[in-house]
Amino acid sequence: RLAARDAVVHAQELQARAYNKGRKPVRVLEPGDQVLINPHSLELVESKGTGKKLVQRYLGPFEVMERINPMVYRLRLPKEFPM
Fold first, then answer.
1. 83: in domain
2. Quick one: pLDDT at residue 80?
3. What is the number of domains present in the chain?
4. Which long-range contacts (CB under 8 A, 24 or more apart) does 44-52 make?
5. 66 phi/psi in degrees, rounded to 5
6. Long-range pairs for 38-46 at CB < 8 Å and ≥24 separation?
7. Where does the record place the Tf2-1-like SH3-like domain (predicted)?
8. Residues 6+ apart with CB under 8 A from 66
9. Where in the sequence is the domain holding 69, given as residue range(s)?
10. Residue 76 scores a pLDDT above 70
11. Mind listing the pLDDT tens digit for each residue in 11-67?
């Protein structure tokens, strides 16, 4: 049993190493940084009824106002932004 369990743990370590080989660490953004938004991942009013090929690839740049958690940020958007 221990040999089988050790083999599974070793295989998982190898798989994790192979998976993480091409990954980059997540860049932490600070207030004041400028970012672009991918409109395909949002439900934007202006993209309704428009083919995805015709929607802009990126919108922005927008200023980061605050970090809510490591993956969620509050952005300063213009008042006329279609959300």
1. no
2. 80
3. 1
4. 44/82, 44/83, 45/82, 45/83, 46/82
5. -155, 155
6. 42/83, 43/83, 44/82, 44/83, 45/82, 45/83, 46/82
7. 32-81
8. 31, 73, 74
9. 2-76
10. yes
11. 999 999 999 998 888 889 999 999 998 877 776 655 556 666 776 778 889 999 999
